Sequence to fold (307 residues):
Amino acid sequence: MKKLSLIVPVYFEEDCINQYLFETIPVLDNIEMEWEIVFIDDGSKDKTQELIKAFADRDNRIKLIEFSYNQGKQAAVSAGINYATGDYLLYMDPDLQDPPNEIPNFVAEIEKGYDLVFGVRKEKIDSTINKIYSRIFWGTLNKFTGLEIPKGLAVMRIFNRKFAEKFMQYREQNRFIEGIFIHVGMKRSQIEVSQRKRFAGKSKFNFKRKMQLAFDAIFDFSELPLKLAVRLGIFMSLLGVLSFIIILFFKLFIIDFAAGWPSIISGIILSLGIQLFFIGIAAIYIGRIYKESKQRPLFSIKEMTNL
Ligand code: UDP
Ligand code: MG
Fold:
């Protein structure tokens, strides 16, 4: 019999765990497969671990990986994929935004022989500001990275062992997993999922974290910022040559004028500013290379239950 592993990152989700399992376990029991749920606790300081452990004590199909400290959802999901043992791996959040009763549809779709099945949202239940943010985020990302990201990507997705192994070969420290999922490629399908509101608790992704994610995504999957520096550099140089010729022409053949200091100073400030900006961009890449070059482990685990 085949086995299905759920991979569920949790961070301060004490209000969701009970309801999540209450809804999910009956759905899993109805699928003709063995199953396990691998929770990855990303350093919560509430009752999240305690609650999960209580379930894990009674049912060894419920597993828990506890991170030593908060390392981010990207690391949590990577750890889950690393330790899950199923033939199929399904990644979802415990906040019930993507409802568990969609799981059988994912299983049915991947059984058709795909390596990865994405969920896309039928309709997005979110605040207007978040919707605008998503639009800008994914739009910019498509432009910068050339990755073909499905529109309205949901969290829930399923993939097979072959895909999981490919995924784990991506060793980058600066992990933007949505990008990696698409970069792995292989045989891919997508199905529509209905959406609900977050069951309880708050979204952990405030504006700052979202911006951080956007930067991670761009600098991980794109060298466009570096190329822009070269292009702008060429453009500015040509502009410099051109203005020199024009000034010379005016001075020699039309009027004899005295060029003022202000124009020179502003020219210098502008070009220095642009140089500094792009040195900064180069520095960001160097910083990331530095981080990669240390080859630290992708995540740090404190304790594992039922694994
Ligand atoms: N999460 C995590 N580590 C973090 C932040 C979030 O593991 O540092 C988990 C969180 O518990 C949730 C999932 O990532 O299961 C998605 O977070 P959330 O629902 O807050 O984000 P949103 O759905 O609003 O994008
Ligand atoms: Mg959520």
Notes: The pocket of uridine-5'-diphosphate (ligand 1) is lined by residues 9-11, 13, 42, 70, 72-73, 76, 93-95, 97, 203-205 (CB under 6 Å).
